[in-house]
Amino acid sequence: MRWEELDREACSVARALSVVGDRWTLMILRECFLGTRRFEAFEQRLGIARHVLADRLKKLHEANVLAKVAYQDRPRREEYRLTDIGRDLYPVMVTLAQWGDKYMAPDGAPLLRIHNTCGHIMTTHLTCEDCGEPVAPVDVTVKLGPGAGAATLPDVQRNKA
Amino acid sequence: MRWEELDREACSVARALSVVGDRWTLMILRECFLGTRRFEAFEQRLGIARHVLADRLKKLHEANVLAKVAYQDRPRREEYRLTDIGRDLYPVMVTLAQWGDKYMAPDGAPLLRIHNTCGHIMTTHLTCEDCGEPVAPVDVTVKLGPGAGAATLPDVQRNKA
DNA sequence: AGATATGGGTTCCATAAGAGAACCTGTCAA
DNA sequence: TTGACAGGTTCTCTTATGGAACCCATATCT
Questions:
Q1: Which pTM value belongs to this model?
Q2: Which of B129, B11, B90 is nearest to A121 (CA)?
Q3: Which terminus of chain B is more solvent-facing, meaning fewer CB atoms within 10 Å of its CB: N or C?
Q4: Under an 8 A CB cutoff, do A118 and B102 touch?
Q5: Could you give the percent of chain B with pLDDT greater than 70?
């Protein structure tokens, strides 16, 4: 399968990855959440090749994850800012960062997140919106939904039903 | 910056991505969470080139995200199963899938997750473990932690302090 | 006026990674 | 002895990436 076919898969993970699943895209988004907005700043902080950066920013803009906002005219200069759609990727970033903190940071977390609401150094968990309980893989059963199309589950799952 | 240098970055997102940030790796992990375990099954369900699949499974095994478990001898055959480390990526998968459901599934979610604990179709949010409140980017302040090394925050963040 | 700086790109080339198909290796069963 | 099966490896061809150089509009310095 080629990369461009991913967004046609009947799987939300695949479709999400068709937008943000690239080597560099998630690094760019990390920078966005840290406040970086300008081309040169992304380049310097990430060490990414300029044309790759230009390409990824363009794709993120087309996917409405980033908006281009002018910060001066003559010469016109634009910076990239997270849209609401982009900001909704925050839980993905935080869960990824926490996994990295847990397994790949022997010297302690490189970055601490302070939860302003309660003032603590933040660790998070994923909770069910209905019952409020934390969610673990073993507590979850999957089944095909309305947008499934011709998609199927692996045999293991079908045998459960 | 080359991809292999990512794991030396003082950023947990970067380090996590050095393991799971590849085009195909997250798709393989999606399959793992759906119950897929065997080489051929991954190949058929993902349409991935065999040598790329072999390479990614090897790397996931080396990173202790997947374990190889023999399911027969003579000829020895092994399948790949999520370790505890791998299972800890579940929140990443779920938040990514939910983002895809929200913005890239006009016909409805392809896959529904049922929370066995309460019986509802599951939607989740990220909550602070200390205060239990949902977490949004605006409620969070970042600062450098013990593992930061020479890493810096973008200027925007430094100006806040 | 001419030279230089700034921000945000684009173009070029050499190398690396990917797709797709063919081939290899134990083992068992017909 | 010939297939079949599972899980790889090897091959070639195409695409993507890294790194450096170049471009363009405007502003400021000399």
A1: 0.94
A2: B129
A3: C
A4: no
A5: 95
